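Worked example

This section walks through a single chain of length 424. The input is the sequence exactly as stored; nothing has been trimmed or padded.
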Amino acid sequence: MSASTQHLFLLSLIVLIGGGLRLAVAWKGDGYINHDYYTGARHLKQSGIFSLGPDLKPTAYRGIVYPGLIAALQPSHVADWTPRRIYLVQALLGTLSIWIVYACGALAISPGSGLVAAGLFALDPMQVFTVNQTEIAAMYSFILTCVCGVLVWWAHEATPKRSFILGAVVGVCVLCRPVLRLFPLYLLILCSRRELFLPRLKRNAWVMLAGFSLVLSPWITRNALQFGKFIPFNQAGGSALHYMASFGMIHGMEETDFEAMVKNLQGSYPKPREAAGERAMDSKDARYVAIRDAAVSRILQHPWPYFRSLFLRSLIYAPFLFLFPWLAVRRWPDNPKVFALAALFSYMSIHLFTAIFLRYITVNLFIAFILLGGFVVQRNSALADPEICRVPNRLGLFCAAVLAGIYLVALYWIGMDLKGTFHA
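Given that input, the structure is written out below as tokens.
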């Protein structure tokens, strides 16, 4: 058996094992149901209004991508809905993610790196055991691996076309969860300090930002029409974690009754305000806007607990988020793909500014797996030979096409939301 055949056999085995585990977990079902996403999807399907509450007031607290996909996958009669349909789709997308992680590693460093990364990712319990939940983690993880595929493709040759597509797919990811909202700027700033990118960077920076803005523009327009104000991302997204950090908490609390937790911390729940000229919003939006304002106020009045918790979080997580990518860039100083992956990995340090849920950090472990695979596979190893398994260099276009399909679903529901609201 040739080295190439052995390599393909191992890759197939990894995908089958990882996919089998995900499908088994999905088929078993009985996972956690996040009622925000499920309720938002139900309202979209029934009335065409994106709302989290029974009063059908519009919301911008959650991104529309995941509830829109749930609504698209479920039958017309809400009584016939079953979460298992969602679980199985998430398991299939998670299986596809294994191959995407392999391809990213193979293109960025070597086929051996991709193989190691795919194996670790296939068995990662944080990936396997989230497929049977109507929680955003599984879908966000899949979208993030697709963004990574486009990023590696972009780093290979940063043309205006690829820069525009990269900005656009980051925009799709932000419509799912707004974590990457500053990543285009972060990437461009880092690249401006690297001679590796300078000849191509200046003419592509504005193109990348244009792609990012264009994808977000329908959501921004919808929010302006619904609420009469500028909301580019999720409204008050992350406010609960900011609030916890303002009291000095290092990690987030899994609290089912957030109001009870707030009252326990502060003695009373912040009263939602009503600003002149603003249209009625979902009650959950109003609650978390009040929480955001209370967090900012507390940090300004009592900054010590917040900055103490920020220091302790940095002490715990910064070595992992910065040292590991720094070592990778030192190991492959002339590899723009490794530099781009390291930039995305270190960007996740944005979570240090709020109380942390561990799952927010571990969602990008697949990048660490890719870099770790490069360290493990030696230069003289047969697995490091790029000829052992050629990955099509159109990986970025494939990932972009998948995300374009997801974006079209979101666009449809944005249109239906506006129609449902103003014709109700």
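What to look for: The chain is about 70% helix and 0% strand.
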